C-alpha cells in the first residue's frame, strides 16, 4: 500500500514538472521558426502588433526606393522616369500577423510614381529607357521580310520574349494575317509610317498623313492603335517630332543597331550586339535572314548579362512591373482601297 502511494506521489510530481514545458512548447516552436529567418522578430503577447509595426517600419527605411523623374538629356534627349518602391506597411503587417513574426519575404511593396513623367516632357525623341531598369527592348521594323517573320516569332516565343514590331502601314494593309500573327503573339505594335518616306522631306501636314494613315490601318487590322512612332531609317527633324506629338505619339529610335539589313553573318551580328548592349538599350532589327538565324544566340548573350528583354512600351513605362501587350483582333477588317 505504501509503495502504491509512493508511486502515485512520484507520478504526480512528474506531471507537475512537465506542465511548464508543455505550456511553453508552442512558444518554443515559434522561437525556432523565428530564428530561421535572420530578421525574424518575436511578437507574441499583447505588444505583438506594436513590435510588428516597428519591425516593418524599420525595414521600410532600408528598402524604400525613391522615384526618378523623367528628364531631357543633352545626348539621349527624352529619358523616361522610373517609379519608386515603397513598403506598404499595413499590407505587410497584415500578411505577417498570422505567424506573428517579421519575415522579409512577406513584405508588400507599392509603386510611387515620379513627379515628372515622360508625358510631361516637351516633344523630343526617345532613344533609351531609364537606366534604373535592368532591361533592354527589341525593336523590329517591318516593311518587308515576310518569309522570316514566322521563325522570328517562334524564337521569341521559345524564350518568352515580348518585343516591339513597328509596322509600315502599307505593309500591314497588304499582309493582314502576318500583322495579326504578330499581335496575337502579344507583341507591342508601333507605327513605321505608311510608305517609308524620308520624313525630313515632308511638311507637317504630310508627316501627319503618313502617321495617321498607318494608325488607321493598324487599328483596323488588329484593333490596337499605336502610341509611338518609329521614323523610317531613323530620319527625323523638329517637324517630324511635332507632327507625331500632335497626334499623341512619342517618336522612338534606338541605341544599338544590329545593321542586319547589311546581311552580316549571324555570329558577327550577335557579337556586335553583345559588345554594345547596355541596360535600358533599344535594339533595332528587321525581319532578315541574319536576325532569324542569330536571334536565339542574341537572346542568350543578353540574358547571360542578367538583362531582361522586353518591349519598347514596357521599357519606356515608368512602372517597374512587367508589361505584355494586349491585342484585340477584329474580324471585320476593311480598308477602302
Automatic annotation (TrEMBL):
SUPFAM superfamilies, sorted: Glycoside hydrolase/deacetylase
GO BP annotations listed: carbohydrate metabolic process
Keyword Transcription annotated: no
Domain of life: Bacteria
Cellular component annotations (GO), alphabetically ordered: membrane
Protein name in UniProt: Putative sporulation protein (Polysaccharide deacetylase family)
Domain NodB homology per the UniProt entry, residue ranges: 134-312
Residue ranges of the TM segments: 9-28
Keywords: Membrane, Transmembrane, Transmembrane helix
CDD domains assigned to the protein according to its UniProt record, in alphabetical order: CE4_BsYlxY_like
GO molecular function: hydrolase activity, acting on carbon-nitrogen (but not peptide) bonds
Amino acid at each position: 500500500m505504501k509503495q502504491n502511494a509512493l508511486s502515485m506521489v512520484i507520478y504526480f510530481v512528474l506531471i507537475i514538472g512537465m506542465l511548464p514545458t508543455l505550456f511553453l512548447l508552442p512558444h518554443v516552436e515559434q522561437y525556432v521558426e523565428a530564428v530561421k529567418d535572420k530578421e525574424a522578430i518575436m511578437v507574441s503577447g499583447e505588444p505583438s502588433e506594436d513590435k510588428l509595426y516597428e519591425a516593418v517600419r524599420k525595414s521600410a527605411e532600408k528598402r524604400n526606393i525613391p522615384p526618378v523623374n523623367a528628364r531631357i538629356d543633352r545626348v539621349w534627349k527624352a529619358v523616361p522616369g522610373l517609379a519608386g518602391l515603397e513598403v506598404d506597411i499595413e499590407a505587410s503587417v497584415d500578411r505577417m500577423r498570422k505567424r506573428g513574426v517579421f519575415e522579409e519575404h512577406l513584405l508588400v511593396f507599392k509603386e510611387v510614381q515620379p513627379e515628372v513623367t515622360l508625358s510631361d516632357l516637351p516633344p523630343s525623341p526617345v532613344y533609351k529607357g531609364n537606366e534604373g531598369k535592368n532591361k533592354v527592348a527589341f525593336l523590329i521594323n517591318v516593311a518587308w521580310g515576310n518569309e522570316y517573320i514566322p521563325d522570328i516569332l517562334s524564337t521569341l516565343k521559345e524564350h518568352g520574349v515580348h518585343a516591339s514590331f513597328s509596322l509600315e502601314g502599307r505593309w500591314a494593309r497588304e499582309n493582314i494575317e502576318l500583322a495579326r500573327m504578330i499581335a496575337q503573339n502579344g507583341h507591342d505594335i508601333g507605327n513605321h509610317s505608311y510608305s517609308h518616306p524620308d520624313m525630313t522631306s515632308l511638311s507637317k501636314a504630310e508627316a501627319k498623313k503618313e502617321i495617321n494613315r498607318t494608325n488607321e490601318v493598324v487599328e483596323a487590322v488588329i484593333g490596337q492603335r499605336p502610341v509611338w512612332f518609329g521614323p523610317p531609317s531613323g530620319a527625323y527633324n523638329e517637324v517630324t517630332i511635332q507632327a507625331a506629338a500632335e497626334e499623341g505619339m512619342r517618336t522612338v529610335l534606338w541605341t544599338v543597331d544590329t545593321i542586319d539589313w547589311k546581311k552580316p553573318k549571324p555570329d558577327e551580328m550577335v557579337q556586335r550586339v553583345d559588345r554594345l548592349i547596355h541596360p535600358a538599350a533599344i535594339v533595332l532589327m528587321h525581319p532578315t535572314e541574319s536576325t532569324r538565324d542569330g536571334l536565339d544566340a542574341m537572346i542568350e548573350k543578353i540574358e547571360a548579362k542578367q538583362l531582361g528583354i522586353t518591349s519598347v512600351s514596357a521599357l519606356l513605362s515608368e512602372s517597374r512591373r512587367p508589361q505584355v501587350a494586349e491585342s484585340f483582333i477584329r474580324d471585320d477588317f476593311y480598308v477602302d482601297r
